[in-house]
Amino acid sequence: MPSSPPLSTLHRALTGVLATTVVAVGASLLPVVATAAASGPKASAARGLSCPVHTAASSPQRVARYRRTVAIRRARIARYQRDMARHSRALRRARSAGTRRHHARAIARDARAIARLRRALACQTRYVSVSASSAGPATGPLHVGVSADTQGWGSQMGARQDAVSGLGVKWLREEFSWRVVQPSAGTWDWSRYDQLLVSAAQHGDTVLPVLISTPSWAGPTANTIPSDPSAYAAFVAAVAARYGPGGSFWGAHQDLASFAPRTFELWNEPYYPAFSNGDIDPGRYARLVKAAGSAGHAANGQAKFLMAAETDVRPTATNQWVSWTDAMYQAVPDLNNYFDAVAVHPYSGNLAPDATSGAPIHERFDRIGLIHDRMVAKGASNKPFWITEVGWSTCSDSSACVNEATQADYTARLFHVVSSTYRSYVAALFLYRSSDLGPSGSSDREANFGLAHEDGSPKPAWASVRAAAGA
User: Fold this and answer.
1) How distant is the alpha carbon of residue 334 from its chain centre?
2) Are strands 312-313 and 322-323 parallel, antiparallel or unpaired?
3) What whole-number distance in Å separates Cα of residue 205 and Cα of residue 343?
4) Distant-in-sequence, close-in-space partners of 154: CB < 8 Å, separation ≥ 6
5) Spatial separation of the C-alpha atoms in residues 176 and 215, rounded to whole Å
6) What is the pLDDT of residues 416-460, one digit of tens each?
């Protein structure tokens, strides 16, 4: 589910840069800052930026090389932005005119460098967008699904699945709770998920299981990611062996076996405190993926596993922001051997899915491009992306949510941008969620992401999904 980390120190500092610089050096610096801010691909195109002409027939190797260049230039931009923030803080503290001029000139120099890099980046990203269709790992039709949590409704599960069928989607993202399946180390209880998979298959739906929730015997809380991943790996292996293609469960349900889950998601949002017991640790999650992926593949050779990815995080043990991807691969250099696809949750607050400004990239949908670049740089260009959560809340707080008409508009635009800009590597798209969790229109952001109200009546976004799903 969506999580809203505090606004980054970098973003606050950059906001201060603009305000402080205007006071210190006057309007003469404004054109420089404006150039840096308006140098993305759209702005470059509007100024008639001349880029080399390439075609989609370019080789995958060339596309990968260009993606690495994009990632390098984005990293350089980030360094210059950090430098601007440092000089901005120093400028606010400076007392002499000479010191203020020094820091103001450094800010202007960094802004010019950022503008140059962004102009070059506009050409690189445009080339990658044109060429990636011939090199991307996503094949076949886009899998469209919804987070529904129907397994939590007991006797009403079938009715909830009936309602979701009206969306026209064929995939249900459902939590498979480790603590429900294995309440004690030697006890296995499959009854809830046996019922779920039979009911979903009878409705013509395939389930995407999210394997989460640590039992009390394996960790202090349900959201604790175990430091010793062996018990979790055994759980993953048991799920894959039972429910994956050709799994033991389907022997008694051969008429439904074509709906067996093929893909399993390893944990949910481990990069946020809410799903790591307040202890963010990319290395620990990477080791979990290694253990679970190894065990799951061994238990069922047809099963596929999703690894969670984000942009930058601040591990709990440090005060430094780090690349989630870099930190995972530093802990497990051969990580590519243990997962098959990447799970991302590119929520964007109240911004549109095609917005390229208005918030730091960590808070925009287009960060999936940055995450993909980083994965490609680690040799994972063949790993498709699954957007397993995304959506817009219709709560009453306009600073974090949108109205129902905007939710419908953004949802329609989401399908367009995924099918065009990102289709070369995005294989699946799951909306969060099917219906509100509480009173519709309340100030509770988490409770109002539904495509339908709490009483089941559809919001306008319901029709957007139906149209995109071909229903």
Assistant:
1) 22
2) antiparallel
3) 20
4) none
5) 12
6) 999 999 999 999 999 999 999 988 889 999 999 999 999 999 999
